[in-house]
């Protein structure tokens, strides 16, 4: 009989660079199912909910995102404070963030789903998500073809490195998080008050 | 007399109905007239927030989706042009790999399917009703627009460093400056183009 523990250890002894460890992938599967389940229940796999947000008619997306940010922020900074988790900060490159962000938004409006919600849309039987997902794969390839050039140009414009909002404003992290959470929660109350959906 | 007028109105109205339907579908497309979420957005948002704690703690990984598509493009590239793929700067920095996020996004499809099937919301349709109300039922038109949108979105996500999940949730909750700039730009670009598409 194969001891599953040993089998996993053996595979990590001689790692295949193109496949991650089985335990890591198992966690990914469990968390992914939970993510897709929640997004579907939140209605954000629906074309009309996503486009409705961009038309400023349906504020479901903003409510889901802001709530996730508030709850996530409190927990992650608490866990980080007690050295239980690492932060995963992406470098700030103002030029690339702005240009990329605007391109992403334009594509989002055309496709009607974003990369994560397209997966949910596909799961709930909105087959038009497949066209968009094919576009996402092709677009990723196009970016890879351009990546030498973007690295020399756009990604150098306004390169601030890995920086957090409180660091940028020279404020201590913990009080900043506290104030930010209050502000975002106030924003949620306003959204809830003025937008039924 | 009055009755006669009513009848002629009705006949005229019926004759105009197809045209009227086409015109009515034009500007005032209202997203709220289609089905909304099954659960409260606050419950779902809080659930995703807690899920972020778990992925950080157990997987040392933030939630993200867009690099899944980059991985897939890398695998396909390696299949057809291995050396060229490996020579590209993006794939040198991010070698294609079946990693946590790849499995995560594939599982997201399954999670969406489970939620829709158990909640009686499985759509099984090629065109979203709101799209049909605005642009008609030509699947080829939808395919071209969605495919083009996907291309733009992927280039944008790779340039910005993430998508609505990686920047929009995981990055913003860490107070990452890059993420807040990006997510504001996602919505500026998205609102502008959506208004052009659905309001003009």
Residue runs with pLDDT of under 50 for 5 or more positions of chain A: 1-13
End-to-end separation of chain A: 56 Å
Main sheet overview of chain A: 2 strands, antiparallel
Number of strands of chain B: 0
What is the molecular shape of chain A?
Answer: globular
Strand order of the largest sheet of chain A: 1-2
Query: Considering DSSP H and I runs of 4 or more, what fraction of the residues of chain B is helical?
Result: over 70%
Uncertain stretches of chain B: 5-26
What is the gyration radius of chain B calculated from CA atoms? 23 Å
Order of helices and strands of chain A: HHHHEHHHEHH
Order of helices and strands of chain B: HHHHHHHHHH
- Helix count of chain B equals 10
- Quaternary state of the chains: heterodimer
Radius of gyration of chain A: 20 Å
Structural class of chain B: mainly alpha
Residue fraction in strands of chain A: under 5%
Give a count of the beta strands of chain A, DSSP E runs of length 2 or more: 2
User: Averaged pLDDT of chain B, please?
Assistant: 90
Helix % of chain A is 55-70%
Largest protein interface? Answer: A-B, 130 and 140 residues
Question: How would you portray this structure in words?
Answer:
The complex is a heterodimer of chains A (197) and B (200). Chain A has nine helices and two strands. Chain A has helices at 4-13, 22-41, 47-54, 60-81, 94-111, 115-123, 129-152, 165-168, 173-194, and strands at residues 92-93, 159-161. Chain A has a two-stranded antiparallel ribbon. The longest helix of chain A has 24 residues, at 129-152. Chain B is mostly helical and 200 residues long. Helices cover 74% and strands 0% of the residues of chain B. The chains are: A mainly alpha (197), B mainly alpha (200). Chains A and B meet through helix 2, helix 3, helix 4, strand 1 and helix 5 of A and helix 2, helix 3, helix 5, helix 6 and helix 7 of B.
């Amino acid at each position: 009989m194969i001891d599953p523990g040993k089998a996993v250890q053996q595979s990590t002894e001689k790692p295949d660079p193109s496949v991650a460890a089985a335990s890591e992938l198992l966690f990914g599967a469990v968390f992914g199912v939970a993510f897709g389940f929640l997004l579907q229940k939140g209605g954000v796999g629906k074309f009309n909910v996503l486009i409705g947000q961009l038309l400023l008619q349906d504020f479901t997306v903003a409510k889901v995102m802001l709530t996730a940010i508030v709850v996530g922020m409190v927990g992650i900074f608490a866990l980080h404070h007690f050295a239980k988790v690492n932060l995963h900060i992406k470098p700030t490159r103002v030029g690339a963030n702005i240009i990329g962000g605007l391109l992403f938004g334009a594509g989002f409006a055309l496709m009607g789903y974003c990369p994560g919600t397209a997966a949910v849309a596909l799961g709930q039987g909105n087959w038009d998500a497949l066209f968009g997902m094919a576009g996402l794969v092709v677009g990723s390839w196009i970016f890879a073809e351009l990546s030498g050039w973007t690295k020399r140009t756009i990604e150098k414009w306004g390169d601030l490195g890995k920086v957090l909002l409180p660091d940028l404003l020279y404020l201590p992290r913990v009080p900043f998080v506290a104030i930010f959470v209050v502000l975002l929660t106030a924003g949620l109350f306003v959204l809830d008050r003025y937008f039924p959906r | 007399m009055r009755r006669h007028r009513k009848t002629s109105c009705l006949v005229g109205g019926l004759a105009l109905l197809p045209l009227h339907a086409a015109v009515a579908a034009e500007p005032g497309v209202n997203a709220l007239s289609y089905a909304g979420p099954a659960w409260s957005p606050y419950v779902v948002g809080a659930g995703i927030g807690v899920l972020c704690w778990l992925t950080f703690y157990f997987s040392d990984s933030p939630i993200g989706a867009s690099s899944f598509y980059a991985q897939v493009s890398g695998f396909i590239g390696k299949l057809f042009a291995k050396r060229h793929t490996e020579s590209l700067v993006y794939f040198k920095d991010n070698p294609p790999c079946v990693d946590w996020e790849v499995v995560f996004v594939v599982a997201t499809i399954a999670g969406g399917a489970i939620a829709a099937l158990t909640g009686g919301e499985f759509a099984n349709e090629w065109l979203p009703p709101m799209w049909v109300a605005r642009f008609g039922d030509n699947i080829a038109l939808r395919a071209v627009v969605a495919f083009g949108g996907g291309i733009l979105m992927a280039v944008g996500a790779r340039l910005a460093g993430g998508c609505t999940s990686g920047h929009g949730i995981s990055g913003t909750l860490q107070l990452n400056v890059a993420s807040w700039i990006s997510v504001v730009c996602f919505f500026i670009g998205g609102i502008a183009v959506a208004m052009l598409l659905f309001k003009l």
